[in-house]
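Throughout our pipeline, every protein is held as a single compact record rather than as scattered files. Nothing more is needed to write down the fold, since each code stands for a local backbone conformation. For reference, a complete record is included directly beneath this paragraph.
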Amino acid sequence: MATTQTGSSATAPEQLPHHKVKIKKPGQRSCNEKDAKGKFCGGHLKRWSYTSDIVEQACGDVEKAWGPNAEVYRCEHCKTLYLPNPEEAGGLNVAGPGQTSVFGLTLPPKEK
């Protein structure tokens, strides 16, 4: 990615002219952007294929900034862009790593 991982850029990624950009928190799956009334958007964050998006092809900001194959998530409601958290392991599962059950019912992973 084009962003450098220095102290300030991890909390405030570079903003694009036509998009609001944030960094996902570990385990975050829904948008935490507030609207004018102060309510959370709450839209699901989905992996965004910006190279096939017609509107984004006309704009071209994302591909110029991060290249054609960057991992970018977009809120389904407010269209805020989220970059993956550098602390979180990427590519494991779209739904996240999951949580250990507090009731002791979690099954161990399958052996390969």
